Amino acid sequence: MFNLAGKIAFISGGTKGIGKGIAKVLKQAGAVTIIAGTDEVRGEAIAKELAVDFIPLDVTDQAACKNVVDKIVEKYGRLDILCSNAGIFPQHYLKDMTVEDWDLVHSVNLKGTFFLVQAALNIMEKQRYGRVVITSSITGEITGISGYSHYGASKAGQLGFMRSAALEYAGQGITINAVMPGIIMTEGLTAFGDEFLNDIKETTPMRALGTPEDIGYTACFLASDEAKYITGQTIVVDGGQILPEV
Ligand code: NAP
Question: What is the pTM of this model?
């Protein structure tokens, strides 16, 4: 396990699923960990369960993203690690997709990433230190799923954003990378139903769905001092899902 003792880590969408898994692992690695989500009741309960702090945040609100980052710096003195993880994946087939459906997914997944990463970088630049880990997906950049063209575009968009941002901050002690999960068993995925999830399990080379902690360990590595020479990169964590040629 990489040592994050003394680091201040903030995870958007840390109250459920993958974000909760990241929070658990970063906390285990010694980071002072703060999680965020829009549901305050669940946020407070999960914060208690993980012995971390919670701050309510809707990542679609630019001023709120800036305020939350400022609050963290005011309380903890700095912000070392941002895991920009909050995301939604409502299914909409293209023939019926409305501009509202498209905008909502982009607003949370892509614009929310821009707002929060920009706010964190303003602080990290002053510190001349920072680790940003974005939760993207294999969907969009590598694979597609029917009903998820808006989602795939937003997840691939995060990677385009990440690569240019990484370049802009490469000389300042700041790294910006992304994790690309395959199918990870989270609360958000229960809507897909058992049949779909069992099918995925059977066709995944490792014959298992990923766990939130699998993404947590990857994020922990990218957030560590040992990963200091890695920036603008992606790591696929998918149990071999994208490997088969036939
Ligand atoms: P999840 O179980 O539904 O959890 C989503 C988290 O995001 C929750 O904490 C939720 O908290 C928060 N959130 C949603 N909208 C938000 C907003 N506007 N502002 C702030 N927080 C918000 O989802 P998940 O499966 O863990 O997915 C997490 C991330 O991993 C997403 O970016 C997703 O695209 C990516 N991903 C997931 C998988 C997978 O198989 N699960 C695969 C690839 C990529 P509230 O409900 O309180 O707002």
Answer: 0.98
